[in-house]
Specification:
The structure holds two protein chains of two kinds. By secondary structure, chain A is mainly alpha-helical. Helices cover 70% and strands 0% of the residues of chain A. Chain B has one domain: Glutaredoxin (3-Layer(aba) Sandwich), CATH 3.40.30. Chain B contains five helices and eight strands; from the N terminus they run H-E-E-E-E-H-E-H-E-H-E-E-H. The chains are: A mainly alpha, B alpha+beta. Chains A and B meet through helix 2 and helix 3 of A and helix 4 of B.
Chain lengths: 122, 174
């Protein structure tokens, strides 16, 4: 009898801890996703920072999607389909953003060349 | 000689940067609605304001004509401004209009429609705003024109005006 009680107690504690861990993981996921989303009606703020009606609904939507088993990428692609590339802070490489991604690389290479030249001259 | 050359390069770079920033200033930096047409999911359900039933949004669209989705709230003043246009589209042109009542109180919503008239074939409620986000909304009022293939083909952000009204009629009458 005592053994059964112990097993039941163990299962209850395990279930509770597992639920807490899962909830925490989901919370971290929701926070991470909402930090990478732009609030469209309060520009300059992320969905995570904003307390606007739009941002509150968006957080709820992300929570629902994560609870239904959607991955981070699936949430982004769903929102990009509805609102376009502008909603995410991390833009994809495409013909509109090629300069954005390319210029830092070009500048980096240019700087490297300058340093090499200086070193060689010395 | 070399110093002069460097000076010219630096001045050129300053000018180029200046003109890039100047062009950037003129560029519209506000969010513009996504123009890509997307199909509304078949699984999207909302509760009816009058019957309390859960309805599939796609079931309310006409198979042989356009449908207008209007997101509104009784607390939203611009919604009152655009209401006559919706009444006109519904009464004079028999357009199928579905209303989505956004973050509102049921009684206030019913009172609003009783006072100003009801242009909607069906009024659905979205208490937490999540369903509107699934449609790509950013607030109220917003109006979407949906074609026979259940695709959003035009979005109007903010209250409808005479130009929007004419634009809707031009598309619908084609």
């Amino acid at each position: 009898m005592r053994k059964i009680k112990f097993v039941v107690l163990f299962l209850i504690v395990f279930q509770a801890l597992y639920t807490i861990a899962l909830a925490n993981e989901n919370k971290i996921n929701i926070d991470n996703i909402s930090k990478n989303l732009r609030c469209l009606i309060c520009q300059g703020q992320s969905i995570y920072d904003s307390q606007s009606e739009f941002a509150l609904s968006m957080k709820k939507l992300i929570k629902n999607k994560i609870s239904n088993g959607a991955s981070e990428e699936e949430v982004y692609s769903f929102l990009k389909q509805k609102y376009g590339e502008w909603i995410v802070y991390d833009p994809e490489v495409n013909k509109n953003t090629i300069l954005l991604w390319g210029i830092p690389l070009i500048l980096f290479m240019f700087g490297g060349l300058l340093i090499l030249r200086k070193v060689n001259i010395k | 000689m070399k110093n002069k050359q460097n000076l010219v390069i630096v001045i050129c770079l300053i000018f180029i940067t200046f003109f890039i920033l100047l062009l950037g200033l003129k560029k519209e930096n506000n969010y513009l609605p996504q123009t890509t047409h997307f199909k509304i999911e078949d699984t999207l359900t909302l509760q009816s304001l009058y019957s309390d039933k859960k309805l599939f949004l796609n079931d309310l669209f006409l198979k042989d004509n356009f449908t207008l989705i209007n997101i509104w709230a009784s607390w939203c003043l611009p919604c009152k401004d655009e209401h006559p246009y919706l009444i006109n589209l519904s009464k004079s042109f028999n357009l199928n209009i579905i209303g989505i009542n956004y973050k509102d109180d049921n009684n206030n919503a019913k009172k609003f429609l009783l006072e100003l008239g009801n242009p909607y074939k069906e009024v659905l409620i979205d208490r937490d705003g999540v369903k509107s986000i699934e449609l790509g909304a950013i607030g109220v009022p917003e109006t979407y024109l949906v074609n026979k293939e259940k695709k959003i083909i035009k979005k109007f952000i903010g209250p409808l005006n005479q130009n929007n009204f004419n634009e809707i009629l031009n598309i619908v009458k084609k």
